[in-house]
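Notebook p. 47: complex prediction with coenzyme A.
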Amino acid sequence: MTNIAIYPGSFDPITNGHLDIIRRASKLCDKLIVAVLVNSSKKNLFTFDERIHMIEDAISDLDNVCVKTFSGLLVDYCTQNNVSAIIRGLRAVSDFEYELQMAQMNRKLEDNVETIFLTASTKYSFLSSSIVKEIARYKGNIEELVPKKACEYLVEKF
Ligand code: COA
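Predicted complex, structure tokens below:
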């Protein structure tokens, strides 16, 4: 049986912290879907196409990773696409409460899908998409914070 995992999120934009989780998660499964949420209540800076393009460029060397969009409940997408594991990153204790609640609710909705937490590498534990956008807005150096294509998009946007 093929083990398919999913790494869902807004990715507005993808950061090196996300990429670190993607690379490590890709070694744990046969196929990893990076899933960009379509119906987010968040006000995003980048369009879906832009976000997908940035992710695709960053993962181009990873053969078993692909990018998709999804809307509706994550567990429904998992069931429809034979996904058995949801990957989430934990950067700090402050992430834990929200992530635990989501994992437990997803488990209640669909107990065939497990959530697997990967702890963020220390060098990325302070990163978030919002903080990167803020630095880019004020022309700070973001080269070490995001993949190359995301850096180009951010510089262009601001
Ligand atoms: N490195 C860098 N940043 C990280 C990170 C990491 N390893 N892990 C999380 N983050 C940041 C993101 O950059 C983002 O920052 P921002 O708020 O500044 O944009 C923040 O943490 C959280 O974003 P994300 O991981 O994209 O999650 P989310 O809260 O936007 O979305 C979903 C989470 C998509 C998994 C969830 O909303 C979902 O499943 N929605 C579908 C509907 C559903 O099923 N709901 C029921 C859930 S129980």
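Notes: The chain is about 40% helix and 20% strand. The beta strands are 4-9, 31-37, 65-70, 85-90, 114-119.
Next step: compare against the earlier run before touching the bench.
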